Amino acid sequence: MSKFDFAPMPDAKGYFGEFGGQLIPPELKAIMDEIDLAYEEIRQQPAFQQELATLFNDYVGRPSPLYHAKRLSAKLGGAQIYLKREDLNHTGAHKINHCLGEALLAKYMGKTKVIAETGAGQHGVALATACALVGIPCEIHMGQVDIEKEHPNVSKMKILGCKLVPVTQGTATLKDAVDSAFVEYLKDPVNYLYAIGSVVGPHPFPKMVRDFQSIIGQEAREQFQAKTGKLPDYITACVGGGSNAIGLFTAFLADQSVKIVGVEPAGMGLDTDKHSATLTLGKPGEIHGMKCYVLADDTGQPMAVHSIASGLDYPGVGPQHSYLKELGRVQYETATDEECLTAFMTLSQVEGIIPALESSHAVAWAMRTAPQLSPEQSILINVSGRGDKDTDYVISKLGL
Ligand SMILES: Cc1ncc(COP(=O)(O)O)c(C=O)c1O
């Protein structure tokens, strides 16, 4: 078995329990089936596995380190905190892991353009990077609100040569960017590939993106055992669509001693309408070609959601997360914008590591939980990305 072989989920039709599937018109279903077939073909080829492994090592800089945050652990006065440093990857986040896979697949399938949405700009930068490397034109759709907030990533996408399409409809954030990218994709789905930026959308994307991201947990599990001789008591990651979380969780799902916690954005509070806590307060529904938990209004329309972290404000969530919640294997918790900002500043000033606002949600949950545990216990946090893109925003928000 190679390190790119994974758990036998979803089933052949793309279902994780009752979640997932291909809730799309038949013409599009045929194209998704072709993508699935090509993916299943390519991922078993030793040449593809070798190419991806070499890119992970020599281009991304994998394995990303596992770091024992001793000063933060001492400050919190409880569990030992370990950080999986996806922030140190080339392009600054975990998104490059699946973008390289998707770009190589696009090349293999002879696609002429790769399209995607982006929220925080991390998926956009990572995809523009992978497309530059592979030599395929790339088009990124991004909400106008996020364009203004995530300026450094916008500049990078332009420099990397992708076409950036500003989206002004709706709340001009992540969901609207997905809708807009989808409209462009439907103009020529035979020749274009919609490289979805998380473990969402119709089958095979939740499976494929998970598979490419699973390297995070495979490395972290080995690294943790090598450092401590045991497994962590808790592992945690932020959940937007859920790709960095499922990337960490997959290798630990069978380890019953490991408690797994996904952290959603509670925004300005769960008792307001300014949050994006889909698994916590949503219900099973449909969005973007899949069945999953959805934050929807009474008519079933996805709600306008909010998070201080542009990469987390999505009213749906990956179908596998929806299933893991129902199974009770993963516990989904929340952190507010305020807790996120405190975690952002604390990790920066206590460890010299500036995390992305998205990742800061997981740090916030760990900061709340560690003091209740003993120093013999441990929490492994996935630092999904670095906070360079967020510094100007945080400075103005905190009036520093
Ligand atoms: C650094 C970082 N972490 C997390 C996320 C959320 O995505 P996901 O839940 O798919 O990991 C994003 C999205 O842009 C991100 O940029």
From TrEMBL:
Q: Which Gene3D superfamilies match?
A: 3.40.50.1100
**Pathway of this protein?**
Amino-acid biosynthesis; L-tryptophan biosynthesis; L-tryptophan from chorismate: step 5/5
Q: Which cofactor does it need?
A: pyridoxal 5'-phosphate
Q: Where is the Tryptophan synthase beta chain-like PALP domain?
A: 61-385
**E.C. no:** 4.2.1.20
Q: Which UniProt keywords apply?
A: Amino-acid biosynthesis, Aromatic amino acid biosynthesis, Lyase, Pyridoxal phosphate, Tryptophan biosynthesis
Q: What does this protein do?
A: The beta subunit is responsible for the synthesis of L-tryptophan from indole and L-serine.
Q: How does it assemble?
A: Tetramer of two alpha and two beta chains.
Q: Which family does it belong to?
A: Belongs to the TrpB family.
- UniProt-listed HAMAP family: Trp_synth_beta
User: What is the protein name for this chain?
Assistant: Tryptophan synthase beta chain
The species this protein belongs to is Balneatrix alpica
- Its encoding gene is what? trpB
